[in-house]
TrEMBL record:
Organism: Musca domestica
Purpose: Putative RNA polymerase II subunit B1 C-terminal domain (CTD) phosphatase involved in RNA polymerase II transcription regulation.
Lineage: Eukaryota, Metazoa, Ecdysozoa, Arthropoda, Hexapoda
Name the UniProt record assigns to this protein: RNA polymerase II subunit B1 CTD phosphatase RPAP2 homolog
Intracellular or extracellular location(s): Nucleus
Xref: PROSITE patterns: ZF_RTR1
Protein origin, superkingdom: Eukaryota
Length: 148
C-alpha cells in the first residue's frame, strides 16, 4: 500500500492543535521561569545546571545573569562567590593594550574566568522557541573548565 504524501499543509492547524500549541507554550514558559529561579542560588550542581539549559533560551540566561547580579552573587550560576567591591565605573583602560573597555557585563562576575565561562555557556544556548524544542536536535552543553 502506498502511503499518502506526508502532510505538507503544516500551516493549517486544527483548533485542537492550536489549543495544544498554546498549552505547550505556556507549559514551556512556566518551566523556563522555574529554571531561572532555581539558578539564582549558590551551590548549584554542574550536571543539573547542564540539564536545565536545554529548557531555557539565551534571553532566560540573560535574566539569570541580571538577577544574580541584583542579588550580589557572581553571575556565573556555578560560582558561589558574593560580589563585593564592585567597581562603580563603566569603563576601564587596559594598561597592556591601551584600549578602553566597557566593563558593564564583566562587573557582574567575580573574575574574568567566571565571565568567560558564562559567555561560553551563553554562546551554546539555543534561541528557538521553547515549545518547538522537541523537533530539534539538542546539543550537549559543555562547561568551560575553570581550573586550568
Ligand atoms: Zn565567580
Amino acid at each position: 500500500m502506498s502511503k499518502t504524501t506526508k502532510s505538507t499543509k503544516t500551516q493549517q492547524l486544527s483548533k485542537e492543535q492550536l489549543i495544544e500549541a498554546v498549552r505547550k507554550k505556556k507549559e514551556c514558559n512556566a518551566r523556563a521561569q522555574a529554571i531561572v529561579e532555581s539558578l539564582l542560588e549558590r551551590n548549584i550542581n554542574e550536571d543539573e545546571f547542564l540539564r536545565k539549559l536545554k529548557d531555557i533560551n539565551q534571553c532566560h540566561y540573560d535574566d539569570i545573569v541580571d538577577e544574580r547580579n541584583i542579588l550580589r552573587l557572581c553571575s556565573y550560576p556555578l560560582c558561589d562567590e558574593i560580589l563585593e567591591n564592585v567597581p562603580t565605573k563603566q569603563y576601564q583602560i587596559s594598561t597592556t593594550t591601551n584600549k578602553v573597555y566597557d566593563i558593564t557585563d564583566r562587573k557582574k562576575f567575580c573574575s574574568t574566568k567566571c565571565f568567560k565561562a558564562s559567555e561560553y555557556i551563553k554562546s551554546q544556548m539555543l534561541t528557538s522557541p521553547l515549545w518547538l524544542r522537541h523537533q530539534e536536535i539538542i546539543p550537549e552543553f559543555k562547561l568551560l573548565k575553570l581550573n586550568d
